[in-house]
Amino acid sequence: MAKSFFIASTGQHVGKTTLSLGLLSGLQKRNVKVSYMKPIGQEVEKTESGALVDKDVLLIKEHFQLKGKDIHMSPVLIAPGFTKDFLDEKIETESLVQKILAAYQELGKSGSSLVVEGTGHIGVGSIIGLNNAQVAKKLNLPILLIASGGLGSAFDELMLNKTLCDLYEVPILGVILNRVKFEKKEMITSYMQKALKRWNIPLLGCIPLDSILGIPSIFDLKTLFKESFLSGEECQFKHFKQIRLAAASVSFFKETIEPGQLIITPADREDIILATISKYWELHSIQKKYDFNIGMILTGQLPPRNFVIEELKKAHIPSFHIPLHSDTVLETINSFTAKIQKEDKEKVEEAISIVEQNINFDYLLQLLSK
After folding, report:
1. Which letter, b or e, does each residue of 142-178 get, where b requires 16 or more Cβ atoms within 10 Å of its Cβ?
2. Dihedral angle sign, alpha carbons of residues 138, 139, 144, 146
3. For the structural domain made of 218-334, what CATH number should be given?
4. CB–CB of 343/55 below 8 Å?
5. Where are the domains of the chain?
6. Check: CATH 3.40.50.300 for 5-211+342-368?
7. How far apart are CA 95 and CA 86, in angstroms?
8. d(CA 354, CA 338)
9. Over the stretch 52-105, which tens digit does the pLDDT of each residue have?
10. How close are the terminal C-alpha atoms of the chain, in Å?
């Protein structure tokens, strides 16, 4: 049986959950009995029963129909005020360690190999005496280290994080590069393998940058801006190829509007909004089942008029209003990295597919069997 391992990254939003999805799926398809654990969670969600669980645990448990209990898969949650309570000596590191060890042992009773996902970079959690290297050491697990695609900068980040692993004497099982530009994948693979030879650490995969995973759904953005849908809520998990700011003339807009665009425009630009709706009906008249796949974010202090909202609803175009300037909205979106939602089935399947195709599972299993 393959042994368990710990997934960590060189930074935040590098893709640990994406890799966890693909690794669990790929191992299952190779007849490895697997389960999942996130020892320390920060993004908490309440279940139907009222229990608090890390969001990634809910996503992976539901998708793979895992049988472990929530309290074992998500034993420690860092809620607001947790760090202050720790520093005020209301919480002790040893009590957290015991919760994590007990949960790990319970999940291991099923005979499963555990994919254990860390939080942030290797140093995250140091303030409570439980950074990722310390947790991996307590669990006696090797670390699979993920870095964002690149060469020099990626290696520099790997070096920083490896230093902390070395300090706590935690072995690094291998490295995976995520979000590598497709046209540079072959070159980066070759040279990163050469660079990692000095540490005797293998490169187990290079995951190419993926457009679906990189662009948030309109549901992600609704959540980001804490707004309600004006229309098209049933289409909230659509994905767009392009996020577009539309503020020029309507004649130019009509010439350049295409399927797959998320359009940001002021709510008082009714000419652009109605041109979008008109394009939808034009395409719909040609092919009834045609998916125009368009979304709209309407900006500015004044909301759109009721008749505009009604027309958006008739066309089932997902839209919401944000009382900010369009430039501010676009800037906020560009700096936002969306987590994969369990309801977003298309993105979950895309994550699994692209990881499975670009990981050397044979080599990984060989390393895990030693």
Report:
1. bbbbbbbbbeeebbebbeebbebbeebebebbbbbbb
2. negative
3. 3.40.1390.20
4. no
5. 5-211+342-368, 218-334
6. yes
7. 11
8. 17
9. 889 999 999 999 999 889 999 999 999 889 999 999 999 999 999 999 999 999
10. 10
